């Protein structure tokens, strides 16, 4: 999973493959977009050649050598008609077809990335290096589509200019090509070095720019608004983070500034202006004034066209290094799309419906190993547990004991390092991953409310022709239906004000009830609830607990709670400490043992119990 993010060495074949890869995606998304873009680029340069090289050259020669006026007028009228037809084609190809098809190209390529994101292992998010690479790949898509379009357009234009103007120079003064070739060789070398340096700077800036983006999100997202206003010292911390990130970005730029300045001067001025404005002008003056080999109109048109010849050769000087830089980014996009999830189905078996029987056999797990780190300190060690179908299990323990990690393993968001987990007597690694996860209803304590309707937030899917009875039943079981029925738009009420001015922002408790309704709606055989009532008041918690027992009477339920009044309802309580099971039994059995759980119970409930 780790890569050398600063590696800028790549062969010409790699550059070609990467640019063709993105071009192929663009062509697959909209063939007409690519075809008309190329045709318009070729048409434009052919038109410019006849207008600015052949046409102006002809008019200058006509003035110098006194061609008949009628002959010149006919030439100009024919040329103007051809140029007008070309402009009409550009309006159709560029202003209509390309503008209409460009959004399709962006949409389809982005959807590929979004679909791939769904397949990523959760461990990818635990690895900062890989996460940086992933963010860079996704954030660069729009830019690289634009660059690929520019690359293709410039390539088509450059080849057209090179062929048309090159032939013209071979006929008029073939030695001029030597100056263009010398300029090309220098510009090619320095452009390639400059673009590699630019890419290296971009990669080194990326982690610091992510910090700046974090500060930006904190200041404009609603989630942080209350904390910032109630804690005036927080902005100071964020300002320091922002300033430090800016300093790091500045240091990266400063570190490369001299080399980039040198390369910029060499590629822009020495490789171009020196050859065209000094050496080539001197050559033309010598040819015309000393040798008499050129007319004055010939000098003017050759000098005017020399720049076009160099631009034609820039397909190898400017365009290729440009393609090299694009290739470095496209390679990251390709690596991202080529990523194969570690957690995959071994046999693709579909899980059975109904309450699940779960068994854990001597499992051990470490986040360090899952994310590819060399550290191997296990968070969970030697966990063995059997859960009968329909049993209600409560996981308790102090923070960091491994409760949430354990349920993530049960859902196969991670794979165990040692041992195995069985569902209905079969290793969960043999099940189809997506279908296995679909058979589990889950609410985590850090659940999210999405910018969509209440109906969509319960379904967590696109609403089509589904009935509302199941949604209303799930909301009723979670205790939110009464509140929803009072809303003007009911189930169609938009949530959050992200995109809708009339959007509704639910309270913490209401949001939690919404998240629980999702679990009730799925009617899964196994339900996992991580702190299901943490944001509820005692009465709402009491009501929810009984509704939950009623709604899940024929389901296997595993819930995590720090409120031991909730865990009393469980058939069995599992006490975790430092990644191990230290106690298990019913509430009464654990109190009679007078161990770790009883100690937690006395601390939490002792103030309300008469001694």
Helix content: 55-70%
Proportion of residues in extended strands: 5-15%
Span of the ends, CA to CA: 58 Å
Uncertain regions spanning at least 5 consecutive residues = 1-6
**What is the general shape?**
elongated
How would the blueprint of this fold be written?
Blueprint: H1 12-29, H2 31-65, H3 69-119, H4 123-126, H5 128-139, H6 141-172, H7 176-220, H8 225-230, H9 233-290, H10 296-317, H11 319-338, E1 358-365, H12 367-370, E2 380-387, E3 392-396, H13 403-410, E4 418-423, E5 426-427, H14 433-438, E6 440-443, H15 454-459, H16 469-478, H17 481-485, H18 508-522, E7 526-530, H19 538-551, E8 556-560, H20 564-567, E9 572-577, E10 580-585, H21 587-593, H22 596-605
Parallel strand pairs: 3-8, 3-9, 6-7, 7-8
Antiparallel strand pairs: 1-2, 1-4, 4-5, 9-10
Helix pairs in contact: 1-2, 1-3, 1-6, 1-11, 2-3, 2-6, 2-10, 5-11, 6-10, 6-11, 7-9, 7-10, 7-11, 9-10, 16-18, 21-22
Q: Please, could you describe this protein's structure?
A:
- The structure is a single chain.
- The chain is of the alpha/beta class.
- The chain has 2 domains: about 10-340, ABC transporter type 1, transmembrane domain (ABC transporter transmembrane region fold); about 360-450 and about 505-610, Rossmann fold (3-Layer(aba) Sandwich), CATH 3.40.50.300.
- It has 22 helices and 10 strands.
- It has helices at about 10-30, 30-65, 70-120, 125, 130-140, 140-170, 175-220, 225-230, 235-290, 295-315, 320-340, 365-370, 405-410, 435-440, 455-460, 470-480, 480-485, 510-520, 540-550, 565, 585-595, 595-605; strands at about 360-365, 380-385, 390-395, 420-425, 425, 440-445, 525-530, 555-560, 570-575, 580-585.
- The strands form 2 sheets. Strands 6-7-8-3-9-10 form a 6-stranded mixed sheet.
- Helix 1 (about 10-30) packs across helix 3 (about 70-120), helix 2 runs antiparallel to helix 10 (about 295-315) and helix 16 packs across helix 18.
- The two termini are about 60 Å apart.
């Amino acid at each position: 999973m780790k890569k050398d993010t600063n590696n800028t060495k790549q062969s010409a074949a790699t550059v070609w493959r990467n640019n063709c890869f993105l071009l192929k995606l663009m062509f697959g998304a909209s063939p007409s977009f690519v075809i008309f873009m190329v045709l318009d680029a070729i048409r434009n340069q052919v038109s410019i050649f006849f207008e600015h090289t052949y046409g102006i050259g002809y008019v200058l020669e006509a003035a110098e050598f006194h061609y008949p006026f009628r002959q010149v007028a006919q030439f100009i009228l024919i040329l103007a008609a051809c140029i007008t037809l070309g402009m009409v084609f550009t309006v159709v190809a560029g202003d209509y077809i390309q503008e209409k098809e460009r959004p399709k190209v962006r949409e389809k390529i982005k959807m590929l990335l979004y679909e791939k994101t769904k397949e990523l292992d959760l461990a990818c998010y635990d690895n900062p290096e890989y996460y940086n690479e992933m963010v860079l790949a996704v954030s660069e898509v729009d830019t690289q589509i634009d660059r690929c379009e520019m690359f293709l357009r410039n390539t088509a234009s450059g080849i057209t200019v090179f062929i048309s103007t090159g032939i013209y120079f071979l006929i008029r003064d073939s030695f001029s090509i030597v100056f263009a070739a010398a300029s090309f060789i220098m510009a090619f070398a320095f452009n390639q070095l400059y673009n590699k340096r630019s890419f290296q700077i971009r990669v080194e800036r990326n982690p610091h720019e992510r910090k700046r983006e974090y500060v930006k999100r904190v200041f404009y997202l609603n989630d942080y608004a209350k904390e910032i206003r109630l804690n005036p010292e927080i902005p100071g911390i964020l300002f320091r983070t922002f300033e430090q990130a800016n300093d790091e970005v500045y240091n990266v730029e400063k570190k490369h500034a001299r080399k980039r300045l040198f390369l910029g001067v060499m590629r822009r001025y020495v490789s171009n202006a020196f050859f065209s404005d000094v050496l080539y002008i001197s050559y033309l003056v010598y040819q015309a004034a000393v040798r008499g080999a050129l007319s004055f109109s010939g000098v003017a048109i050759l000098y005017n066209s020399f720049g076009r010849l160099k631009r034609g050769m820039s397909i190898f000087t400017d365009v290729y290094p440009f393609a090299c830089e694009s290739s470095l980014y496209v390679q990251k996009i390709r690596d991202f799309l080529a990523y194969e999830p570690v957690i995959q189905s071994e046999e693709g078996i579909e899980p059975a419906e109904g309450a699940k029987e779960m068994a854990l056999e001597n499992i051990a797990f470490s986040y360090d190993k899952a994310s590819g780190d060399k550290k191997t300190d296990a968070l969970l060690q030697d966990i063995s547990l059997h859960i009968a179908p329909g049993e209600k299990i409560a996981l308790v323990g102090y923070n960091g004991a491994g409760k949430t990690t354990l349920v993530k393993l049960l859902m196969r968001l991670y794979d165990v390092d040692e041992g195995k987990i069985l569902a209905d007597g079969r290793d969960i690694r043999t099940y189809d991953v997506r279908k296995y996860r679909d058979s589990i209803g889950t609410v985590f304590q850090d659940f999210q409310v999405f910018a969509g309707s209440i109906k969509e937030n319960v379904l967590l899917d696109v609403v089509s022709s589904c009935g509302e009875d199941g949604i209303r039943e799930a909301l009723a079981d979670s205790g939110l239906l009464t509140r929803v029925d009072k809303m003007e738009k009911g189930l169609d009420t938009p949530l959050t004000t992200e995109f809708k001015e009339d959007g509704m922002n639910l309270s913490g408790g209401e949001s939690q009830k919404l998240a629980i309704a999702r679990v009730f709606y799925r009617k899964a055989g196994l339900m996992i609830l991580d702190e299901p009532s943490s944001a509820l008041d005692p009465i709402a918690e009491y009501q929810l607990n009984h509704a939950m027992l009623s709604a899940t009477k024929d389901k296997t339920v595993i819930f995590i709670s720090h409120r031991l009044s909730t865990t009393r309802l469980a058939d069995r309580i599992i006490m975790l400490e430092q990644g191990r099971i230290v106690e298990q039994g019913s509430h009464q059995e654990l109190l009679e043992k007078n161990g770790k759980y009883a100690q937690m119970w006395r601390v939490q409930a002792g103030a309300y119990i008469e001694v």
